[in-house]
Each structure stands twice: as C-alpha cells, then as structure tokens.
Amino acid sequence: MDPQNHFESVNDSIAREGRAGVDQHVGKTSREVVSDLAKQIEPTYEKVLRMRKPASVLLTGHVRDTPEFGYWIDRCFSIIGRSGRVQQLGLFVVNVTAEKAAREIFDTLTTDQNVKRRAQRACWLN
After folding, report:
1. Cβ-count burial 16-32 (b if 16+ within 10 Å, e if not)
2. What is the tens place of the pLDDT at every residue in 18-41?
3. Sign of the dihedral through C-alpha 25, 29, 32, 34
4. Total domain count for the chain?
5. Which end of the chain is more exposed for a tag (fewer CB within 10 A), N or C?
6. Do 76 and 107 have their domain in common?
7. Radius of gyration over every alpha carbon of the chain, rounded to an integer in angstroms
8. Residues 87, 103: one domain?
9. What CATH code is carried by the domain that includes residue 4?
10. pLDDT category, 125, cuts 50, 70, 90?
11. CA dist., res. 87 & res. 4, Å (int)
12. d(CA 114, CA 104)
C-alpha cells in the first residue's frame, strides 16, 4: 500500500480475502475494498506510518456485503525508500476464522466440563 492507503499490488491470497480480484484492489483504498473492516485497520496503518514500527491488529467482521463473519490477523510494516521516507506499507493478512471457532468450541467444552465437575464435587460433599 502507498502512504495514502491505496493498494499498489496484491497477491492472490489477499485478493481472495478481500472478496475481489487483484485488479479490483490495485489503486483502491482499504475502505473501498473491505468497507467496514477498514475502520479497524486504518488506525494501525497510520501508527505504522508515523512510528515506522510493525504492528498487528485482529480484525473482526464482514468483508464487503458478505454474510460470513470472519477473523483476520493483519500484520503491517513500513517499507523505507532510499530517501529515508516511508514508501509503502507491507501487509500480511491471515484468515484465522477456523482457528477462532475451534478455540471457542474448546473454551466452551472446557468451561462446561469444569462446571460439571464442580457440580459433581458439590453433590459428593453434601
């Protein structure tokens, strides 16, 4: 991405996550591509541009008008040019929706088992 938040190049993986083709990303801002998720991303991009240090953000929501709710980890970093100024933002975006769902199931099962054990112990003590 350029410092004005426009996609300059995109690989197929990011294009899939953005629910649009590579050509539909290039030249567009994050708001134009991922709509509501951009509100979560933009403060991190601004911080990386200002501080020149990598940062990550967990994104939650819908891409464009899709019904699927998802989770993504967006890791961004500044790319410094020969002039010493930030030329671009580099991004790694990982869809963690399946992992998040598995963790929620694990946490629910663990909590339910703990509740069950506590209830059983309470009955045995009485």
Report:
1. ebbebeeeebeebbbeb
2. 777 888 888 888 888 887 888 898
3. positive
4. 2
5. C
6. no
7. 20
8. no
9. 3.30.450.20
10. low
11. 10
12. 15
